[in-house]
Amino acid sequence: MQFAPPATWIYAQGEELTIATGKNAVMGLAAQPAGDVKKERTDREDALRRITGQLGVTLPKKKSYIAKKPDQKQKIGEYDVDLYQFEGAKLDGRTGPLLFFVAKASKEQVVVGAGFVADDDNDNADQAIMTAIGSLAPAATEAATAKNAP
Length: 150
Prior knowledge:
Blueprint: E1 10-13, E2 18-21, E3 25-33, H1 40-55, E4 72-76, E5 79-91, E6 94-104, E7 109-117, H2 125-134, H3 140-148
Antiparallel strand pairs: 1-2, 2-3, 3-7, 4-5, 5-6, 6-7
């Protein structure tokens, strides 16, 4: 899987999570097995909590975050992406919306991620996050293998 973090942001690729940080925003994403369709909401909820925890983002108080249907579905780049937005997330004492996304990379794998933008952002970080999500693509070796498959 390839990903282009927002320009001018600092990023680091960890074992489990790639994190990109801007002046007023942060995002992280990870690949994980697609899992059982019957457990999809639970798996997404767990991924949301894991990623926001690693980013240091505090979720707003809610019993459950992942609805039966996403707030929005989009075709972004090569992938069908489910988008969920939560108002009132916090990072370093600043409040703002959190976007959680799930991109179906294949039948076996999904890419999950979250992006937080502080309410006082004036650097268009929300658009930078959407552009980064749009950069998701199979790694060059994955794409070549898929092209040559019978």
